[in-house]
Amino acid sequence: MATNVNLSDLSILLLFLVGGAIFTIGGIVTSRLLRNDKPNKEKNTSYESGEDPVGNAWGQFNLRFYLVALMFLLFEVELIFLFPWATVFGDKQLIAETNGVWGWLVWFEMMIFIFILVLGLAYAWRKGFIAWEKPRQSVYLFKSPVPGKLYEDFNKKMTEKEYGRKK
Amino acid sequence: MLDAGTIAVYSFAVITVISALFVLITRHILHAAFGLLVCLLGIAGLYLLAGAEFLGVTQLLVYAGGILVLIIFGIMLTNRADGKTIKAGNHRVIPGILAGLAIFLLFTQIYSQSSFRDSLRSTDNNIPLMGHPVESLGVEIMTRYLLPFELIAVILLVILVGSLFISKKENDTN
Amino acid sequence: MTQIELYFLVSIILFCIGIMIVLIKKNGIMILMGIELMLNAANINFVAFAMKSPEAIHGIMFSLFLIVMAAAEAAVALAIILRVYRFYKTTDVDEIADLKG
């Protein structure tokens, strides 16, 4: 097999990126296969500055992370389409060939695309999927039948009595 | 004779197949997810070596950076077992493997009897590899593939609203 | 073996492994991974055919839309799996058999 692949610079860069990632993972896997494996209970606990860990590392994973990842994925797909658009949007030759129609056409096409997706973002925002849920502060609301002034008077009287006795 | 391109193509193909087999064989679901990650990276390398640069980048961004993260989040949300290791059990092992092998034989038979096989073999060294610059992709999306492109936006909107609605908690009334 | 044939072979092997995963594994998320492998196998085929063709851009466009659809499919499938998990407390497809006659 003779591949007459003439790769561009970008391809070579990306190939090194992908190959580097794979060989890093391969090194970790190889060392995992070759190393001694003698676990005991002390070694298997997660390191907590000498404290004994309580509970499980997998416990209580918030659903919010998942929802944010989901929205991220769908808007990343939008980004994929924005890249080729951006390379041809301001193309002078195409604009000159079509008397300037090309720029406006492409602009409105992409604006429609983005507008439809922004509707989804608006839905997510309106329904509160983006807002990070803060722990709600519970304010103690208690309506006492006794008016507040009575307490103040009582406190005043008691302090006067206290000071008076000390004197 | 072996040139660097050939070695790269073969090594990416081998990495892809081995990691896919690892996904099949392993019983730990998180290990399977990492095997899938290596497999997707290998496929991205194959795309790049086929001259489909933009597709390779898309594969890296959407698959390795998006779908796989979503899958790992899904694993973490559904397998919060009480300290147990996460097992992905098997069933119907023998029929499953037989079905896979049957489909493998079917596809290889179809390919070996196909009419385009000889033309692919003979022209491989003559026609140079077609490049696909991003600009031509952009022009195609904006002209010939305009309707699918706008429909993609509608589908993404539906998917966003639908999957958010499905996966929210029932008692979320806001 | 030419480069295109190697791509065909990888694509066929990935598709078969994907089918085996879908048939053999019990966990819903593992089944989703098998489906992703099968989609990728189809994508490799498109890229392989687009490699030498002068009309190559159409194969690339098809693969691009396929990847986008795969993202959408994964999002919905995982949402459904999460919902099922919250209701049944399991993702084992054998135990979710309420409608089984």
Automatic annotation (TrEMBL), chain A:
Predominant subcellular localization, coarse grouping? membrane
Which Enzyme Commission number(s) are listed?
Answer: 7.1.1.-
The keyword Secreted is annotated on this UniProt entry? no
Keywords linked to the UniProt accession: Cell membrane, Membrane, NAD, Quinone, Translocase, Transmembrane, Transmembrane helix, Transport
Q: Which Pfam families match?
A: Oxidored_q4 (PF00507)
Provide the protein's localization: Cell membrane; Membrane
The record lists the catalysed reaction(s) as:
a quinone + NADH + 5 H(+)(in) = a quinol + NAD(+) + 4 H(+)(out)
- The answer to whether UniProt assigns keyword Repeat to this entry is no
InterPro entries reported for this sequence: NAD(P)H_OxRDtase_bac/plastid (IPR023043), NADH_UbQ/plastoQ_OxRdtase_su3 (IPR000440), NDAH_ubi_oxred_su3_sf (IPR038430)
Q: Which Gene3D superfamilies match?
A: NADH:ubiquinone/plastoquinone oxidoreductase, chain 3 (1.20.58.1610)
Membrane protein topology class: Multi-pass membrane protein
Q: Where are the transmembrane segments?
A: 12-34, 65-85, 105-125
Subunit record text: NDH-1 is composed of 14 different subunits. Subunits NuoA, H, J, K, L, M, N constitute the membrane sector of the complex.
Query: What family does the Swiss-Prot or TrEMBL record give for this protein?
Result: Belongs to the complex I subunit 3 family.
Q: What does this protein do?
A: NDH-1 shuttles electrons from NADH, via FMN and iron-sulfur (Fe-S) centers, to quinones in the respiratory chain. The immediate electron acceptor for the enzyme in this species is believed to be a menaquinone. Couples the redox reaction to proton translocation (for every two electrons transferred, four hydrogen ions are translocated across the cytoplasmic membrane), and thus conserves the redox energy in a proton gradient.
Record-given protein name: NADH-quinone oxidoreductase subunit A
Q: Which organism is it from?
A: Mangrovivirga halotolerans
As recorded in Swiss-Prot or TrEMBL, the protein's gene is named nuoA
TrEMBL record, chain B:
Give the EC number(s) under which this enzyme is classified: 7.1.1.-
The reaction(s) annotated as catalysed by this protein in its Swiss-Prot or TrEMBL entry are:
a quinone + NADH + 5 H(+)(in) = a quinol + NAD(+) + 4 H(+)(out)
Its main subcellular localisation, reduced to a broad class, is: membrane
Bilayer-crossing residues are 6-25, 32-50, 62-81, 93-112, 145-166
MF GO annotations? NADH dehydrogenase (quinone) (non-electrogenic) activity
Keywords tagged on the record: Cell membrane, Membrane, NAD, Oxidoreductase, Quinone, Transmembrane, Transmembrane helix
- Look up the domain of life of the source: Bacteria
Function in brief: NDH-1 shuttles electrons from NADH, via FMN and iron-sulfur (Fe-S) centers, to quinones in the respiratory chain. Couples the redox reaction to proton translocation (for every two electrons transferred, four hydrogen ions are translocated across the cytoplasmic membrane), and thus conserves the redox energy in a proton gradient.
Question: Which family is annotated?
Answer: Belongs to the complex I subunit 6 family.
From the Swiss-Prot or TrEMBL record, give the protein name: NADH-quinone oxidoreductase subunit J
From TrEMBL, chain C:
| Family annotation (InterPro entries) | NADH_UbQ_OxRdtase_chain4L/K, NUOK/Mnh_C1-like
Source domain of life is Bacteria
The record's listing under Gene3D superfamilies reads: 1.10.287.3510
Concerning Pfam families, the annotation shows:
Oxidored_q2
Q: Name one GO molecular function term.
A: NADH dehydrogenase (quinone) (non-electrogenic) activity
- Broad class of the protein's primary localization: membrane
EC identifiers of the protein:
7.1.1.-
UniProt subcellular location: Cell membrane; Membrane
The UniProt keyword set, sorted, is: Cell membrane, Membrane, NAD, Oxidoreductase, Quinone, Translocase, Transmembrane, Transmembrane helix, Transport
How does the protein's chain sit in the membrane according to the entry?
A: Multi-pass membrane protein
**Reactions catalysed, as given in the entry:** a quinone + NADH + 5 H(+)(in) = a quinol + NAD(+) + 4 H(+)(out)
Please indicate if the UniProt record lists tRNA-binding as a keyword: no
Transmembrane stretches, start-end: 6-24, 31-51, 57-82
UniProt-listed HAMAP family: NDH1_NuoK
User: What PANTHER family does this protein map onto?
Assistant: NADH-UBIQUINONE OXIDOREDUCTASE CHAIN 4L, NADH-UBIQUINONE OXIDOREDUCTASE SUBUNIT ND4L
- To which protein family does this belong? Belongs to the complex I subunit 4L family.
What functional role does this protein have? NDH-1 shuttles electrons from NADH, via FMN and iron-sulfur (Fe-S) centers, to quinones in the respiratory chain. The immediate electron acceptor for the enzyme in this species is believed to be a menaquinone. Couples the redox reaction to proton translocation (for every two electrons transferred, four hydrogen ions are translocated across the cytoplasmic membrane), and thus conserves the redox energy in a proton gradient.
Oligomeric state and partners? NDH-1 is composed of 14 different subunits. Subunits NuoA, H, J, K, L, M, N constitute the membrane sector of the complex.
What is the name of this protein? Answer: NADH-quinone oxidoreductase subunit K
Query: Which species?
Result: Mangrovivirga halotolerans
Gene name as annotated: nuoK
